[in-house]
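Good morning C.,

I know you're traveling, so I'll keep this short. The sequence:
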Amino acid sequence: MNLAGWIEKWGRAAPDRPAIAFGARTYLNYRQWAARSRALAGNLHSLCRPGDRVAIAMTNRAEFLEALFAIWHAGLVAVPMNAKLHGEEFGYIIGHTGASLALASPDRAEDVAAHTRTIVTESAEWRQLYDGDGIDVVARSPDDLAWLFYTSGTTGRPKGAMLTHGIMLAQTLAYFAEIEPVGAGDCVLHAAPMSHGSGCYGLPFVAMGANTIVPESAGFDPDEIAALLAAHGNVSFFAAPTMVSRLVNHSGFAAADHRGLRTIIYGGAPMHFETLLRAMDLLGPKFAQIYGQGEVPMTITVLPKALHADRARPRWREIMGSVGLPRINVDVRVTDERDRDLPTGEVGEILVRGEVVMKGYWNNADASAETLRGGWLHTGDMGAFDAEGFLTLKDRSKDMIISGGSNIYPREVEEVLLRHPAVLEVSVIGRPHSDWGEEVVACVVPRAQQTVSAEELDALCLSAIARFKRPRGYVFLAALPKNNYGKVLKTELRRRHGQAGQS
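The tokens, ready to paste straight into the viewer:
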């Protein structure tokens, strides 16, 4: 069972059906995509060994989809990387996976080429990958790796969640069951990075021979989204809550014709109730919320469209503040520090088990054993069930910061700041931001008789990590608050320095 078989299937059964759109125009139909996938796979197969990892470093573009499915077609493992990453971060992922090849868009090619052989879209070498008749889809079993989903961890280094063909199929089937069915006339729009959640939620549309829309801007533009809704119709897309907020607060989008919108699937951070209410007043009950992680590809809980629409339901407002009910193919628990189930209403760590949970972390046995101990994925997120079974997130035990829908782990930023010779200690926290949900703040203790400026630290961060991870505020302290065991009291730092509007 190989996910790439979907392209072959629709290339035969519905060859003239639009498969990939670039903006308003059709880029490939399914016959063309199937032919390209065969050729790309054949050439990748000659460049790589069975089971090799192939990295993808691309901003949103049609070639991302061609690359992803061709990698699978050839029996290889895809390693999609966030296109916002710094070259040093690309290097770590490529080195950790031992990727023998990277496929990159021109804007990321230089950062990737230093670390492995790289073929750049739009180049002569890329065009040569389309040559030849190609190969048949390489047989894969449900347990064979398909996607190494790299997600940051508290160690400061990203970890690669091992997702198999069977896991991605289970995620796809759960989409049909609990979010929406998909038919030939439906479309998915990639306004968020295809390397992560948006890419996962694009799979159900390919599975059913529907159309995938890649914006010409390669990202999130409210005016462009409005135009694409009108051009295509029946459009669904994944969006972080901050994206939803930007849409409804954009005068051009608010005034546009929204009849082409089918569904907005939101998740990745808390949605403020007033923002959700305003969005539904503008667009109608076309929203579904998901809660998931890369380790359980976007499939832990769901708050479906029907519940969003049922405003007369008792406790509707409270339910809208939850992340919904467990998905049909997972078990979800809330436990104490000894993994014992907690009563309704009590806050504990969220644990998940099911066919959609990762096999483990690539080349990281210790982290795999810790995260999957007892046969349950320990999410690190804190939450509580109510009497009706709805799960509400309360906190994140790993101190993760969510800014603009992107996960930022303080330890990763702290390790970069500690490279500065004048920095003695540092603790990174999040503080509320009206547009992004949270922003990063660094609390810095300089070494005795040394000084360091925010500008110096900002330049250091920009040299080593993605721009979206760098602190947007710096607080210089004589000492960090600590408990008797020497642990930094981040709760106290948030109380003192984590208020919105501080500089």
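Safe travels,
E.
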